[in-house]
Amino acid sequence: MLFDPAKRDGLSEKLIRSHCWNNYGGLVKALNAGKQKLAGFLEDQNLPPYRYNDLKRERLMRTGSVILHELSFDNLGGTGQPGAAFRKMLTEAFGSMETWEKEFKRMDFGLGGGSGWVVLGYNLRSGLLQNYWQWNHLHAPSATLPIRVMARYEHSYHMDHGAAAPAYVDAFFRNIHWATVLARLDKALNARAL
Ligand SMILES: [Fe+2]
After folding, report:
1. How far is the CA of 53 from the centre of ligand 1 (A)?
2. For 125-181, how does the pLDDT look when each residue is reduced to its tens digit (9 = 90+)?
């Protein structure tokens, strides 16, 4: 974890540690166990191929979940105030920083009791910066790099906010580490320029 979980505004240390150690920690263990199982399955000539792909599908899902969790945790730890450079890019893409935030929050509120990831992503093909909803760990648009990721599963907020997901979203915004987000966007822009 790149930040002190005891010093977040509106996200308790108990919630952050539980999410990190229990949920994310369990995922990492399951991902590693799946890797060992795959190695054994590959040598088993009697195993139907579809069974191998069942495990590959599970591995794909867990890989996506581990990465999205890491991106979501890592873009926390700041004060929620973006610098001029990022504000300028959001203004170019969305008309204004406020419009971007309004859409991001509207998408989140639209989930109601649902779940998934709400993501600001940069598409390497189109060059567009867009908000999108990943309803599970697999469904990112092709060629889109996650720039700013917010977990929106119940275990991400219920301990602190109960069913009041909008309060969690507001707290998440107050804790964004914008330098991390900007560094991701810089990498994406450089990758597209190659
Ligand atoms: Fe989670």
Report:
1. 25
2. 999 999 999 988 988 899 999 999 999 999 999 999 999 999 999 999 999 999 999
Q: pTM for this one?
A: 0.93
Containing H/E element for 150? strand 144-151
Q: State the distance from the centre of ligand 1 to the C-alpha of 1, rounded, in angstroms.
A: 14
**Cβ pair 156, 168 in contact under 8 A:** yes
CA nearest neighbour of 146 among 135, 134, 163, 156: 134
Q: How many A from CA of 113 to the centre of ligand 1?
A: 15
Class of domain 84-193: alpha beta
Q: Give the Å distance between the CA of 99 and the centre of ligand 1.
A: 27
**Domain boundaries of the chain, sorted by first residue:** 12-74, 84-193
Contact 18, 12 (CB under 8 A): no
